[in-house]
From TrEMBL:
InterPro entries: Aldolase_TIM, Lys_aminomutase/Glu_NH3_mut, rSAM, rSAM_sf. GO terms for molecular function: 4 iron, 4 sulfur cluster binding; catalytic activity; metal ion binding. Keywords: 4Fe-4S, Iron, Iron-sulfur, Metal-binding, Pyridoxal phosphate, S-adenosyl-L-methionine. Belongs to the radical SAM superfamily. KamA family. Its cofactor is pyridoxal 5'-phosphate; [4Fe-4S] cluster. This is Lysine 2,3-aminomutase. It comes from Trinickia soli. The lineage of its organism: Bacteria, Pseudomonadati, Pseudomonadota, Betaproteobacteria, Burkholderiales.
Length: 464
């Protein structure tokens, strides 16, 4: 399709406005009700491009991009759904709806992996809002005007940010504190600007966050990463938006300053990379000197087919992108609806990996972004008569844990690290021995946190 036929002006749809979308009338009543009910709990936002170009309306509700952006009844338990449906559609009791919604949200483990506790750094004894510092060399920065997205993914692990759970929200208004923090932390080499989606911002606002990172006193910052889903949900951002050329000039400026600029592109399904404009977006990003890495979680109902992953990675490589991560879906939000057993995740990853060129085998996975670090499943093997998962840390709170193989008893139903037990009769995994001592291994180590993690050390949970 030529660009002329595409939506050019970004037009989001929310719970309040989705009824105005031309496709809304095509939905049967029960699907419309599910949107109206579930979007009280989980954020809902889509846009005209996603609806016109990415969803096959003849295949709704099974179409993967429909599942990716539209709430489904099964995302709540049957009693929860029945209760909330009654309140929303029959009783229309706002106070009761609010109370029920809050209860459901708090059940959904809104902040996995100690995001709101152990990852928030301190400077001069005060927490620095809008920053996370989990791994020694990488700081995450959440600019306040980048805390929304061109559309919301139904599985998103950052969903609390989008539903006004203000006490759980974290964002930064400007980059002064980030720069001050980075000056005190010469061990940091990478800044990941994330959200939400920082590319929801116009180029001028984004430059206001990025350009200070190019200052000579921050020469230890080698890599600037931007986490974004715009490559899939609004590729116009790089091609036809009125400041898309300015955006590419900004990318070039970062590269000319001697930094590596890496876009961490969030692609869930090959359909997102099929439109010509999505392919042009990749080429324009790469031609600016930036790199584009592809990552996404493995999600039941959306991307379970190994052939889809192979198509995604192969197309990406052809266009100049780099396959990077297949994540395991986190234990938050409606995870029961999206999660797959680890054994199945490994099987899907292996089946996809086996069929692609060596150039696409830059991808790593399936990987869990858990509380102690990023744990990858290397294989399922028999050792000394015991069937085990072979695992290792790709990234860890304690750098000494990285690339140290360890083993867990095989469990066909396990969906997350906290489900696993050590193999070979061990009582604990090696990293549990000293996990408390290593919780503060990064910049915020100047202060011991009294905060409890939302789950036990091993137990915790990205695009990000
Ligand atoms: S997964 Fe990324 S793009 Fe999707 S809603 Fe979450 S932050 Fe936004």
């Amino acid at each position: 399709m030529s660009d002329d036929a595409l939506p050019m002006k970004f037009k989001p749809y929310t719970r309040q406005t989705i009824t105005q979308a031309p496709q809304w009338q095509r939905l049967p009543t029960e699907l419309r009700e599910a949107v109206q009910v579930i979007s009280r709990v989980l954020p809902f936002r889509t846009n005209q491009y996603v609806m016109d170009e990415l969803i096959d309306w003849n295949d709704v509700p099974n179409d993967p991009i429909y599942r990716l952006t539209f709430p489904h009844q099964d995302m709540l338990s049957p009693p929860e759904y029945a209760h909330l449906r009654d309140l929303v559609l029959v009783k229309k009791d706002e106070a009761a709806i609010e109370a029920a919604v809050r209860t459901i949200r708090m059940r959904m483990n809104p902040h996995p992996a100690g995001q709101m506790t152990h990852n928030v750094p301190f400077m001069n004894g005060q927490p620095v809002s809008g920053l996370q510092h989990k791994y020694k060399e990488t700081v995450l920065f959440f600019p306040s005007s980048g805390q929304t997205c061109h559309a919301y993914c139904t599985f998103c692990f950052r969903w609390p940010q989008f539903v006004g759970m203000d006490e759980l929200k974290f964002d930064a208004r400007e980059s002064d504190e980030l720069v001050a923090y980075l000056k005190q932390h010469p061990e940091v080499t990478d800044v990941l600007i994330t959200g939400g989606d920082p590319l929801i911002m116009n180029t001028r606002s984004l430059a206001g966050y990025i350009e200070p990172l190019l200052a000579p006193e921050l020469s230890h910052i080698k890599n600037i990463r931007i986490g974004t889903k715009s490559v899939a949900y609004w590729p116009q951002r790089f091609v036809t938006d009125k400041d898309s050329d300015d955006l590419l000039r900004l990318f070039e400026k970062v590269v000319a300053a001697g930094k590596n600029l890496a876009l961490m592109g969030h692609y869930n399904h090959p359909a997102e990379l099929r439109p010509a404009i999505a392919q042009r977006a990749v080429k324009r990003i790469v031609s600016s000197g930036a790199t584009l890495r592809m990552q996404a979680p493995l999600i039941r109902h959306i991307n379970e087919d190994p052939k889809g992953w192979a198509e995604l990675w192969t197309t990406g490589v052809r266009l100049g992108a780099i396959p990077y991560y297949m994540f395991v879906e986190r234990d938050t939000g409606p995870s029961h609806y999206f999660q797959l057993p680890l054994a199945k995740a490994y099987e899907i990853f292996q089946a996809a990996y086996q069929t692609v060129s060596g150039l696409a085998r830059t991808v790593r996975g399936p990987s869990m972004s858990a509380f102690p670090g990023k744990v990858v499943i290397d294989g399922i093997v028999d050792i000394a008569g015991e069937k085990v998962f072979a695992l290792q840390f790709l990234q860890a709170r304690n750098p000494d844990w990285v690339r140290r193989p360890f083993y867990a008893k095989f469990d066909p139903n396990a969906t997350w690290l906290h489900d696993l037990k050590p193999a070979f009769g061990a009582k604990k995994f090696f990293f549990e021995e000293d996990s408390v001592a290593h919780i503060a291994v990064v910049g915020h180590s100047e202060r011991t946190h009294a905060d409890a993690a939302p789950r036990p050390a091993l137990a915790l949970a990205a695009n990000g």
